[in-house]
């Protein structure tokens, strides 16, 4: 008997390169999931075009049309619920979410962040790593909790920082890893192997360490 297909809702704000990686893995049948819908908070996000090209319903909920964070997040939740998503995937979604929204999708909300959390929460992570003279940098996939970039880490991938790196050089290296590990995490979720329990990431019924699953 085949496993049920996991329904994803992907939230974006820009280019949608991680969205494309997920679309490609589903198409290659390496990820037992379907993208029920894509939502952007910016009308000019190229990721909306990627979704439409793949035959995925794409919706813009422009945050400029809402008076406050609470009303926006209420509309966002309503749209996600309409897609009947099993998992909400933040893929470059540049919004701070209200605790009420986050708690309503507890254990079903994942994010990818371009740093080795808990280092460099927030923005401009690549330049901050360079400015601090770090020898390595990377990316983390984590469950989302009300604390900004503070939910339990599922997996991290590390990249070297070279002496003459610019922020864009480092970003390119990190994004290559993002496109590799995000579909992997979603495959674990779709197979029922990954969950959040007691504010910890749990894979195959084993609590993961603070730095997440050990990846090469």
Describe what you observe in this structure.
With 216 residues, the protein is of the alpha/beta class. The chain has six helices and ten strands. It has helices spanning 17-27, 46-53, 69-83, 99-104, 125-131, 167-190; strands at 6-12, 33-40, 58-60, 87-90, 109-113, 136-143, 153-160, 194-197, 200-203, 206-207. A seven-stranded mixed β-sheet has the order 3-2-1-4-5-6-7, sandwiched between helices. The longest helix has 24 residues, at 167-190.
- CATH-wise, what's the superfamily? Formyl transferase, N-terminal domain
> In CATH's first tier, which class applies?
Alpha Beta
Integer-rounded radius of gyration: 17 Å
Helix count equals 6
Features of this protein?
globular, alpha/beta, 3-stranded antiparallel β-sheet, 216 residues, Rossmann fold, 10 strands, 7-stranded mixed β-sheet, 6 helices
Provide a brief overview of the structure.
The chain is an alpha/beta fold. It is built from 6 helices and 10 strands; from the N terminus they run βαβαβαβαβαββαβββ.
